[in-house]
Specification:
Four Helix Bundle (Hemerythrin (Met), subunit A), mainly alpha, 3-stranded antiparallel beta sheet, about 250 residues, 3 strands, 8 helices, signal, about 10% strand
Length: about 250
């Protein structure tokens, strides 16, 4: 097992929407000198006079065997096609989505994680089948805009059978998919657009308060950030030197 370094989550305790203070610590391994150079940077812009609790945990990941994509040309083509969406998604997650959660802007959270509307007849009539139009309508950290690209890039590292590297990367995407869906639902509930139902967030049949929803979204944000970094760690492992490593949050 390769040990991953400490994941530091700084939690600001406020009377409004509580949001973790601090960048996500990138997964690190004592076996990788390049990853040892990646350091997390604190987010002091959210630190005030409120009390701060620091929680440190250690995470273990499954060692990944080197996995090559279907030829170097294929890997480079997939890298050029998918990583811009992944990198932009990480920036959005750390920037705009962070800000929306910090301010308790439920509409912005809903928009950020929203899927585009279903393809219409008008879309099908367009030259590209409406792909560009629908992509522009997808949220900045939505399945259509970011997670689908992460899944497709992960699949590039498999050939006739699914490799351990692809499985590890796609497992993190599955976690992110739960995060995005959970955030979107919480935002809709907070705005009265949807009912909780089904014991949502473990609060039984009653509608959760905005304080409860805010706490859940905060936890989802941290879960998503750490899953994104684990994905990046797996993607960068064994990446050819001519390709730039993906940045951590």
């Amino acid at each position: 097992m390769m040990l991953v370094g400490k994941v530091i989550a700084l939690l600001a305790i406020t009377t409004s929407l509580a949001l973790p203070v601090g960048a996500f610590a990138p997964p690190r391994s004592h076996q990788s000198t390049s990853l040892l150079e990646a350091e997390a940077h604190s987010r002091g812009d959210f630190i005030s006079n409120a009390a701060i609790a620091i929680a440190a945990t250690s995470v273990a990941v499954i060692p990944l065997q080197p996995a090559n994509a279907r030829g170097r040309a294929t890997l480079e083509a997939a890298y050029d096609r998918y990583t811009p969406r992944i990198i932009d998604g990480g920036k959005f997650f750390k920037g705009q989505l962070y800000g929306a959660i910090a301010k308790g802007d439920w509409k912005a959270i809903e928009t950020a994680t929203a899927e585009p509307p279903k393809k219409s007849k008008e879309d099908r009539a367009l030259a590209d089948g409406g792909i560009a139009k629908r992509a522009a309508q997808a949220g900045g950290f939505s399945d259509s805009r970011v997670l689908s690209a992460m899944d497709l890039f992960a699949a590039t590292f498999s050939e006739s059978s699914i490799s351990p590297k692809t499985k590890a990367m796609q497992a993190e995407v599955a976690k992110l998919r739960e995060v995005v869906q959970g955030m979107n639902k919480a935002a809709r509930i907070a705005q009265g657009e949807e009912k909780a139902g089904g014991g949502f967030f473990g609060v039984g049949g009653k509608t959760p308060s905005k304080t409860e929803l805010a706490s859940e979204v905060k936890d989802l944000y941290m879960k998503g950030g750490n899953a994104f970094n684990q994905y990046v760690y797996a993607a960068n492992d064994g990446l050819p030197v001519q390709l730039n490593k993906l940045p951590f949050l």
